[in-house]
Design a protein that fits this description.
Blueprint: H1 6-54, H2 58-136, H3 140-169
Helix pairs in contact: 1-2, 2-3
């Protein structure tokens, strides 16, 4: 196929723009999720340190350690959940952009194919009319006029097809 049609190019541009924006949002979400995790970890560490200082016995220190580990695990789970959700949205965005672009390509190609089929059918009809007119022509002038009418019909069908496909390919 020659260059892309304007519809295909617009769909490709939208696909590219959507991917760039999705990547930007994804990157930002990863950064924010990581910051939130680090902040939660930092806060858990501060709380853990203070809890260990005020713990009166070994059991209290053990419970402070367990609470600290749970807080870190919860922070990791939250970070991972945010990132997983981001990846789902990111993937869906990519998939939709690809599907939209593919749909545009298919519709453009179908329209071009329809224009070609219409042209082929017009040629067949012109051939039928031409052959019939040639049979009925009684003199050279009538045959010449049948030839001219046939050429005009073919040229007109070609122009209609070319115009339709040119619009689709622009």
């Amino acid at each position: 196929m020659e260059g892309k049609s304007s519809a295909e190019q617009q769909a490709l541009d939208a696909k590219t723009k959507g991917r760039v924006e999705a990547k930007k949002v994804s990157d930002e979400t990863w950064i924010r999720a990581d910051r939130a995790y680090k902040e939660a970890k930092k806060q858990a560490h501060i709380v853990h340190k203070k809890a260990r200082k005020i713990a009166l016995n070994k059991q209290a220190k053990k419970e402070a350690n367990e609470a600290y580990k749970k807080a870190i695990e919860q922070a990791k789970k939250l970070r991972d959940a945010i990132i997983a959700e981001t990846m789902v949205v990111f993937s869906c965005s990519y998939d939709k952009a690809d599907a939209d672009y593919l749909e545009t390509q298919i519709k453009t190609r179908e329209a071009i194919s329809d224009a070609d089929e219409t042209y082929t059918e017009a040629n067949k009809q012109a051939d039928i009319v031409y052959k019939e007119a040639k049979k009925r022509a009684v003199d050279k002038q009538a045959k010449k006029e049948a030839n001219e009418a046939y050429k005009k019909a073919i040229e007109q069908a070609k122009q209609v097809r070319d115009e339709a496909t040119r619009k689709l390919r622009q």
